[in-house]
Amino acid sequence: MPKKNVISWQGDNLPMLEALSLPVWVFDIDNKRVFWANPAALEVWGADSLQELCARDMSRDMSVSVAQRLSQYQQDFERDNAVFTESWTLYPKGMPRQLKVVFRGIQVEGRMMMFCEAQNTLSTDPATLRSAEALMHTSMLVTLYDSAGMVLYRNPSARAKVAYTSETWRQHFIHDGDWQTLQQGVAAAGEARQLAQVHTRQGMRWHEIAVRACRDGVSGQDALLVTEVDITDLKHAEARASFLANHDVLTGLPNRNGIRSELLPYLQQALRDGRQVALMFIDLDRFKNVNDSLGHASGDEMLIRMSGRLSQLLGHDEKVARLGGDEFLVMLAAPDVAQRAEALGLRILQSLAMPMRLGGMDISVSASIGISVCGEGRLDIEQMMRHADLAMYAAKDAGRNNLMFFAPALEERSQAQLAMERDIRRGLDGGEFVAYFQPRVDVASGRIVGAEALARWQHPMRGMLMPDAFIPLCEDCGMVRELGRQILSQAARQQRQWRERGLDLMVSVNLSPSQFVDPALAEMVAQALRDSGCQPEKLELEITESVLLGDDEQTMRTLQSLRALGVRIAVDDFGTGYSNLAYLQRYPLTSLKIDRSFVADLERRPAIAEMITTLCRMMGLNMVAEGVETSQQLRWLAERGCQEYQGFLCSPALPANLFAQLVM
Hints:
The protein is an alpha/beta fold. The mean pLDDT is 86.
């Protein structure tokens, strides 16, 4: 016997069904074709004959949402003997036709098909029809619950994704507190919104849920309309971005941000428990020689192995972080921490000095360690780090492969820094800082299309100094704005001079975070353009990710004012800071520069660079790869649509005259 509401297909019924004036047809859900139709249905479908109608492949024009909905019907016929009366829009020969249709299950040749009975033609206004279609096709999950939390309606997306176990509104949530928060919000304001973990057929997912009190249009009783958007991928991206913000990409160790967010509370608790705490600054000796002789890839491999050695040496109350470059920081706590730090430091020196195989050679480097101790009182992490840094430099001065404790006498080193600061001021006044230019090369053609202006210091006594020798101190003492202004002015003038020589080149200039927050930044750039005659569209300003993480409104105003001048905006060293993907859409950016660390690591760990290139293509951002040193790296970037590159594969930064010779 057939189930209730499920029709059994029998040939004896055909004459009676064919005589009906109402359109009736049987739809084969599995094969997406009409199995049988009476004459009235043939007219509805615009078919000349039953054979012609049955030959139509409905799947060719069927949307994913409709196919999904029909599959849900089939399941309901088999499981619940369901009967549906719904408004549907059919598209016979591409023309829309609105009908009110009753759907039932029908057993045909051992398979569940759908018996369709069109009751009348609808004449609903266009807005209503389109809203019903939108509800059918939207990927948003829409559910109507009654006041007891039972399901009254789910759209196809909700039917497809909500777990079978979520029979009620409350059961949908993994954490009951999220449901309670929404209920309380609706009770107080009539609507509420919440990010929550929910049960789905894919397992646990993060949904952004909006709920609003309403009435059921059928019964008139109180109801809840719930809409949900799956944001799991975004949550994962945020978690990854958060990890990158607090951890070093290369080694996975906490970075400077991680020290404050993860390790500082550990030290504070140790002091409250009556223990002493110590910081150990560890710097690899002559690590630059490894990069220069074996390349950055080997240098990175050494840093990874060194971080592993450090981690293996540490006990429960000892933590390690990477500060950047070849600098590491170890934190420890103990009743007599100085003695313990010295013993640990000697073990670290011995372990790090052991040779390792790199580039087919056995390479060994020593380390210098500086230690600062906080016994009692308030913990000043910045002062301790500064003291440990001073002690580390003292260890280097003592011959390297050594450790030193901070002593007040080391403060004299700070006096030397003050002298250096005076030297920088004199150099800025005397025009000793000059712009060098590193080529930016078109990946497709190999043609030099631009240059990045990089600061150099032509010191009268020490010769040509690289940025690492003066940029950090310029930032610390507030002179980086003036340095940036001078380099920008030189770069803008150089762009005009190259143009006059027939060289159509883009020039990019770095903006420091302190420059970016300067209210006079836009006027300074405008003045440089006026004074130099530089084409605004040929000037690109490079900013780091960190400057985009402040006041959103102020950041937007600053970027818009710069873009209004006609200059371009690039994000430099992308991926090394807090990679909040939202700002790539929110802010008026034009280019994105892939940090050299990701390029150097392409062969071993290409995932992040792959993600960045994909993101650039999706967002329509110009891609510039930094630090390209090999043809293999360039080929990898070319295959992924990278437009430009910089690096030693083409040339290091050059004075303006040598750069022009390279282009010409």
